[in-house]
Amino acid sequence: MARLRSFQRLAAHFVDIADFLLVYIEEAHPSDGWVSSDAAYNIPKHQCLQDRLRAAQLMREGAPDCPLAVDTMDNASSAAYGAYFERLYIIQEEKVMYQGGRGPEGYKISELRTWLDEYKTRLQSPSTVVIQV
């Protein structure tokens, strides 16, 4: 949940230059599977989309101001983006501009913040215009 709150703070800070979206994917540590000793929730493996939607509501509670999407039961989003377990992306004009490392070790809000800070600086810098006469 701490990572989710950090993500929400980041989203609030950069709301003027970026749209943020959380995508809930397959549960990494289901209570009836590979259980993590520090799991915050007791979520069994999703058997149907309704199970996944219910579990996603827990994510919604951690970041109520951020739009939330839920991956399909065939895990199409996770497969397309290599997101399993968790991952940060910046997508601009249908192109991946930033791909963070795989979580939990590679999930680094600080890297995402740096990218967004640099992007914001570029947006605020006046462009150089060359006029040939």
Question: How would you describe what is shown here?
Answer:
- With 133 residues, the protein is an alpha+beta fold.
- It has one domain (1-112): Glutaredoxin.
- Helices cover 36% and strands 11% of the residues.
- The strands form two sheets. Strands 1-2 form a two-stranded parallel sheet. Strands 3-4 form a two-stranded antiparallel sheet.
- The chain is elongated and about 70 Å long.
- The termini are far apart.
- Keywords: Oxidoreductase, Selenocysteine, Thyroid hormones biosynthesis.
- This is Iodothyronine deiodinase.
- It comes from Psophia crepitans (common trumpeter).
- One of its GO terms (biological process) is thyroid hormone metabolic process.
- Responsible for the deiodination of T4 (3,5,3',5'-tetraiodothyronine).
Short structural summary:
With 133 residues, this protein is an alpha+beta fold. It is built from 4 helices and 4 strands; from the N terminus they run αβαβαββα.
